[in-house]
Design goal:
Elements (H helix, E strand, L loop, with lengths): L10 H8 L2 H10 L14 H7 L3 H10 L14 H7 L3 H8 L18 H7 L3 H10 L14 H8 L4 E5 L8 E5 L2
Antiparallel strand pairs: 1-2
Helix pairs in contact: 1-2, 1-3, 2-4, 3-4, 3-5, 5-7, 6-8, 7-8, 7-9
């Protein structure tokens, strides 16, 4: 149960990545120490669940091991970073609406990026909307390059598109309109 494969993954990590809820609960009933064992890439089982949009598994980890929501991978990213980076917008939405995890939105990784920065870099509009509208503090944060999420969005706009403001939330949630 505690053995690791060639990638450093435990049974718990593998179960979290594939969404095997029943098996994961069975392992957690025996021992929760695997929650705090990272893979060779520096990710913990809760990160694998966030990457693959297994929200119920994330909630189970947090229920049984509340401190697991604070675990950071090798890049200094929490579960909300991982969800935003991997376009797991449903997971990002659920985490931002959960009173126990919404504060994770202002966390900055080793590059100073917040989950909103990563969502913008991946043009994950559902996550952008969710993250920008739930926590206004996140809009002001700059990464190590001195960029806010909005700065990244504006720099990535393609020449044949116009960056158009639609909503009156602080981030001015945006969508792209073909330039005529």
């Amino acid at each position: 149960m505690d053995e690791q494969d060639e990638d450093g993954r435990t049974c718990l990590s593998y179960g979290a990545s594939i969404g095997y809820y029943k098996g994961l609960c069975n392992i957690l009933n025996r021992s929760t120490k695997g929650v705090y064992v990272c893979d060779q890439d520096g990710s913990f089982p809760i990160h694998s669940a966030a990457k693959n949009e297994h929200y119920e598994i994330i909630k189970e980890f947090i229920k049984r091991c509340p401190a697991s929501k604070y675990l950071l991978n090798r890049l200094g990213q929490n579960i909300l970073h991982v969800a935003a980076k991997n376009e797991a917008s449903l997971t990002a939405y659920m985490l931002m609406h959960d009173k126990d995890t919404k504060h994770l939105g202002v966390g900055q990784d080793v590059d100073g990026n917040t989950p909103l920065h990563l969502a913008v870099m991946n043009w994950d509009f559902d996550s952008i909307t969710c993250l920008a509208s739930r926590n206004h503090e996140i809009l002001k944060l700059r990464n190590k390059s001195g960029l806010r999420a909005r700065d990244i969005a504006e720099s990535e706009v393609k020449p044949n598109y116009i960056f158009h403001e639609v909503f009156l939330i602080p981030f001015h949630t945006t969508h792209l309109i073909p330039h005529k």
